[in-house]
Amino acid sequence: MEHRCGLRRPVAIKVRLRTQHGRIGDGEISDLSASGALLRSHLTAALHSRLVVESVSAKHNRVKTEAPLTGEVVRHVSGGFALEWTEFSPEAVRALMREAVGATEVRRAEVMGSKSH
Predict the structure, then answer these.
(1) Ranges of each domain in the chain
(2) Could you give the 3-state DSSP secondary structure of residue 103?
(3) Residues 62-77: pLDDT tens digits?
(4) Is-contact 15 56, C-beta < 8 A?
(5) Alpha helix locations (H) across 1-117?
(6) What's the half-sphere exposure (Cβ side, CA atoms, 13 Å) at 12?
(7) Cβ neighbours of residue 19 under 8 Å, at least 6 residues apart?
(8) Among 26, 53, 62, 64, which residue's beta carbon has the most beta carbons within 10 A?
(9) Is 0.85 topped by the overall pTM?
(10) Which residues pair with 19 in a beta bridge?
(11) Which pLDDT belongs to residue 103?
């Protein structure tokens, strides 16, 4: 059975990725939620490995975070992988979601996420 927390939204956010072994590559978050993201990248990462998402910027480059986001690779998909954030709904993710999908939707996702715990 598949279990996911958080309301997922399609986005197109360019990122720089770093594996726990120091490999670096570019990617794009194509699906974002308070609990994780779907990333498209040619970088490979083993299942259950730690990944750092750096140099995150949303559309129009109005939101940028220097604080890296960390997560665990929980699923491989064609052309990328799914990542579950180490911390549920970190501030950097909320800022990206506000920019990408609007503040109202972010508040709704946060409320829904808190009800699922």
Answers:
(1) 10-115
(2) helix
(3) 455 557 899 999 999 9
(4) yes
(5) 91-101, 103-115
(6) 2
(7) 43, 45, 49, 50, 51, 52
(8) 53
(9) no
(10) 51
(11) 45
Secondary structure (DSSP) of 6-22: S--EEEEEEEEEEETTS
Q: Which two tokens stand for residue 52?
A: 């750092």
Q: In CATH, what is the architecture of 10-115? A: Beta Barrel (2.40)
Distance CA 47, CA 57 (A): 25
- Tracing tokens 């197109």 back to the chain, one arrives at 12
The alpha carbon of 78 is separated from its chain's Cα centroid by a whole number of angstroms, namely 17
The mean per-residue pLDDT over the stretch 94-102 comes to 74
Say if CB 84 and CB 8 are below 8 A apart: no
Q: For the chain, state the CA radius of gyration.
A: 13
CA 100 remoteness from chain centre: 12
Please report which confidence band the pLDDT of residue 108 belongs to, taking 50, 70 and 90 as the band edges.
Answer: low
How deeply is 109 buried, as exposed, middle or buried, from its count of CB atoms within 10 A (0-12, 13-18, 19+)? buried
Quick count: other Cβ atoms within 10 Å of Cβ 64?
A: 13
